[in-house]
Write a structure and sequence with these properties.
Layout (H helix, E strand, L loop, with lengths): L10 H21 L9 H8 L3 H7 L3 H20 L7 H18 L1 H11 L3 H27 L9 H22 L5 H17 L6
Helix pairs in contact: 1-2, 1-4, 4-5, 4-6, 4-7, 5-8, 5-9, 6-7, 7-8, 8-9
Amino acid sequence: MASVTRRRAAGPDRRAATDAKIIEATERLLAGGARFTELGVQRLAAEAGVGRSTFYLHFRDKTEVLLRLIDTLVDGAFELMSSITPAAGLEGLVATMIRDVRYYRERRHLLAAILEVSAYDTAAREFWDSQLQRFIDLAEVWLRGDQEAGRTAADLDPPTAARVFVWGGFQALANQVLIGPEDQDEVVAREIALLMWFGGFRRPAQS
């Protein structure tokens, strides 16, 4: 009698693989120049090689796919930024900002889609804002640490300064990678770092 080997259930693995196919297909289309608002579920499913009904078994709608892409994009950027502290000095901050701009330049198709959709979709905007809050919280921790150590002005307000850094710096970064010339990326990155450093981390005390 032939032996029968019980096969492991492939449900979770198969689901993860299908999720990945749909996400990768969406990013591939965006990288190819498609605008997210113009992509229908049918096209995403076809690009991924799955049926429309299969798509809806894995994602509520195409915005949910975008939220997964946002999560991945921000995780990479956060890992990059959190790899340093103000102890690295000005040049360390400049070097990290240059890498950050390059990171977004390579993924500008995702950034464009995120900014496009978050302008009109409440769920996307709230999720995007919550992801940026991670950077604000990190900047606030850095600023409080420098303030307590006496390295920056006592009258600096860390929560407000952190919001200005992240929102202002990100707007400059996004504008550069989406419509600015690539040969100016390092110049813009350095200016962002200098503004953060002398505007916050080493802000002189008011006389």
